Amino acid sequence: MSSSSDYVKIAIATLIGLCLFSLYFIFIGIDGAAILLAPMSSIESLIFYTLALRVLAVTFVPYLRRSQAQVKIALFSIETFVLVILIFVFVLTQQLAYNILIGQVLTAWLGATSILLTPYLIWQISLNIYKGMSSSALVLSVTPEYVVGVFLVAFAIATSPPSGISEFGASLIGSIRAQQTVQGVQMLGSNPLIASISIIIFLCMLFQIGLKQSSQGTPNLGEPLSKGTPRYPYQILLLLAGALFVFFWLIFSPSALGTDGLFTVCVPTVAITVILWGLTKRRDNPWGK
């Protein structure tokens, strides 16, 4: 790989990382003080600080840093195993104390992971982009993290600041059920900063796909997808088509289908997923003959 390509990869990884971090810091700037400065219970402190230590260990301890993804997931999800045990004990004993403890552990863990794991995942995504992750991995890692960032910003705008880690976790669950965050997402559509971040991330993903295409040669468009041939022009067109579909849907759907935000978001998501799944499963030439 030439040095110029290395510079381009560094620029793309840096831009995507900065954009994702910008969403995270916007959220922290709005709700961070109320969440982090509130007094913590013993359970909140135990979960928050041990999770912080686990994140630092996976980041800086060479053995853990080089471990498999499943090991890291298990380390970050120890609380889920505790929850399974607590649920089992509650079913056997029917003691209300265990039911309360389940809620406390669950909400504290959700709040702590949203605060602590988000920056770690953004750093890992940027690092993997520089190392040359595949186009599919790029889309499947950047897109969910972008959605999480927008969700957290919309949550901060649409709800009052939660007081503490557990209340933050409970508010996350409540806002999804009440569609409060969906209303916040609709408000973000006209925000110039959020729009700029979204455009930069999208363009960087396209450039990264093009960079991998140039390093691997021009694909043979006559071969089926099942043969594993790089199909970067095809992937770029799919991204553009999906973006245009969602763009026009969000413009015209409120007047035609009402203003139900959940319906407005879910329909294009399901449609794009079904279309892309069908196209990638085809064994013949996706362009048609």
Structure description:
This protein is an all-alpha fold. Helix content is 82%, strand content 0%. It has 12 helices and no strands. The chain has helices spanning 3-36, 42-60, 62-65, 69-76, 78-93, 96-131, 135-158, 165-178, 180-188, 192-216, 232-257, 261-281. Helix 1 (3-36) runs parallel beside helix 7.
Number of strands: 0
Specify the helix fraction band.
Answer: over 70%
- Measured by DSSP, the beta-strand proportion falls in under 5%
Spatial extent as radius of gyration? 22 Å
Note the overall shape. globular
Number of helices: 12
Low-confidence stretches: 218-230, 283-289
Chain-wise SSE layout:
Elements: H1 3-36, H2 42-60, H3 62-65, H4 69-76, H5 78-93, H6 96-131, H7 135-158, H8 165-178, H9 180-188, H10 192-216, H11 232-257, H12 261-281
Q: How would you sum up this structure in a few lines?
A:
The chain has 289 residues and is an all-alpha fold. It contains 12 helices and no strands.
What distinguishing features does this structure have?
289 residues; 12 helices; globular; mainly alpha
